[in-house]
Amino acid sequence: MNVHIDSFTEAFLGDGAFVPTVADAVVGPSRIAGRGLFSSRARKAGELLAELDGQLVEWERFPEVLETLEWNAVTPKLLLVRPLRTSYGLINHSSDPNVVIDPDGRHMRCGRAVELGEEFTMDYFAQPVPQAYLALPEARVLRGEL
Known about the structure:
Layout: H1 5-13, E1 25-29, E2 35-39, E3 48-51, E4 55-58, H2 65-68, E5 70-73, E6 78-82, E7 92-93, E8 99-101, E9 107-110, E10 121-122, H3 131-134, H4 137-142
Parallel strand pairs: 7-10
Antiparallel strand pairs: 1-2, 3-9, 4-6, 5-6, 8-9
């Protein structure tokens, strides 16, 4: 069975859908990968984009979440997990990001000014991601190893 976050999202919300959690943002084709999230207005550095929610999960107890659900790392052992795709899940990785997550793991904001129409990006490795994630094919692709 190939179950992943989009399986749940499609079942509950429909194909290509997501829970919008970033105001004044639109989905569009990304030069980075597939779809991306773009700002529909100019934004200032430090502007709050979203308060991240979810269930706090110890990934070692449920390692499947690393490859199956949407999450952000709060600590190397603790993830904030969401069962449905949100705006967060459409933000692509970049080594030159314009979005950051606060150290509390709960607040996502502009790390620098963002122009109208600019794609939101974040450095996935700036979070305290688990070592197990770094060994996954996804992380290896993001680092340019595959």
